[in-house]
Fold this protein.
Amino acid sequence: MAIATSTMLALGAVGLAAGGAVAGGIDADKQAKFTAADQRQQADREREITSMNEDDFRRQQSRVASANRAAMGQSGVDQSSGSPLLAMSDFEAETELNALRIRAGGQTQAQRLDEQAALTASAGKSAKRRGFIRAGSSLLSGGANTFIS
């Protein structure tokens, strides 16, 4: 049984369409993997920056506390009891609270970037899967149309 030229062309077109669908899905997956890796790097960098900001804030506040203690000492204030001790204790507590807020903000941003990276990677896998499904569908419908006609 000889296959007509039009049938051969139709099957070739179906094959090209299927190949294009597969290639498109694979390309989308590669792009998504690249983007997800970039987002993970951004998350890691956000964690590094947050850690440095928290450390810088603590050092800065330590210098302020030292300067305050020195000023009180020069003025003859007893720092071991009463209002001066309570004021220093409040300052230290506030410093710690703000340092923890800096950390929490950075961790939240890094977590968002990690989640976005996971979603991007998942979208790439889905695009690749859809490419294979479109290819299969193209092959089945094109083959059916060619041989039924």
Notes: Residues 43 and 112 are 8 Å apart (CA to CA). The chain has a mean pLDDT of 87.
